[in-house]
Amino acid sequence: MKIKSEKADVTVRDFLKCGLTGWCIEILFTSANALRNHDFTLRGQTSLWMFPIYGCAFLIAPLSKVLGKYSVLLRGTIYMTMIFSMEYLTGILLSAFHLCPWDYSGCRWNVSQVIRLDYAPYWFGTGLLFEKLLQKKE
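Predicted structure:
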């Protein structure tokens, strides 16, 4: 006998939705960076490691229910901090095994070569995008 949990289905669906969205954002972002470097092939890239990292953004859903009454500035800042924390933790972990697909060592505002503080506005906006993506229609 198989017992199916609707809540578990929603969590898996949100994880997959966030993972795929994150991949797409990263490919678009790296393509835009190629354009900035006059590479008109617009080649974008990502890594399989990024799917579960972006998928963890599903954690924004329950948090957004609590934060919903607060300003966009506060919510975005909290999401940005969460994303930076996840990027830092996963970057350090993957780096320990020489598997980290990103290296910010050549960037001015890097922290431990795994996060870039100048990406704060991007992560602020990405957090709010995930919040919107994860809102349940009632």
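Summary: The two ends are 31 Å apart (CA to CA).
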